[in-house]
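Budget justification aside, the reviewers requested a transparent look at the raw inputs and outputs of the sequence design task funded under Objective 1. We therefore reproduce one unedited record. The lines immediately below are the structure tokens for a 153-residue chain.
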């Protein structure tokens, strides 16, 4: 085997490995995008499925049809921003700027802050503006990890 043949064979192997590595990277990015879309779709489905339980008079109460929902994007499953319209010991109901109400579940691990100080869930009142970061639950709620109360304007 000549030196030129060895060099050509080595170059082909290097190029093949690079192409294979790029293909794996592209597939990983595609998979991550699919999982993000699946998570958002699942949260939106669970939110819709449990809407009557979370926001109306219970599971037997029928809501009027919502009309054409084509073209709407899925709601954000990991965060919320808006005005607190309902408060109890473990749940907040907030109304976002898009007029969609979201149910927020507060756990013992939820960090609640007003400015630099940490406060308790009992310090949150109706008409407070909040920013919430959390994880979606299977009931269509957001399980809050961080709640930050915004200053009054």
């Amino acid at each position: 085997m000549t030196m030129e043949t060895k060099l050509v064979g080595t170059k082909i192997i290097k190029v093949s490995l690079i192409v294979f590595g790029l293909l794996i990277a592209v597939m990983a990015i595609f998979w991550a995008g699919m999982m993000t879309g699946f998570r958002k779709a699942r949260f939106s489905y669970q939110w819709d499925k449990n809407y009557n339980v979370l926001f109306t008079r219970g599971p037997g109460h029928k809501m009027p049809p919502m009309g054409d929902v084509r073209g709407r994007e899925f709601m954000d499953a990991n965060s919320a921003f808006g005005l607190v319209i309902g408060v109890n010991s473990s749940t907040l109901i907030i109304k976002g700027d898009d007029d969609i109400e979201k149910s927020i579940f507060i756990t013992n691990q939820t960090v609640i802050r007003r400015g630099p100080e940490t406060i308790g869930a009992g310090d949150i009142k109706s008409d407070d503006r909040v920013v919430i970061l959390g994880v979606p639950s299977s009931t269509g709620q957001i399980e809050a990890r961080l709640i930050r109360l915004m200053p009054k304007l």
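The longest strand covers residues 79-87. The CA atoms of residues 56 and 63 lie 9 Å apart. Computational costs for records of this kind are itemized in the attached budget.
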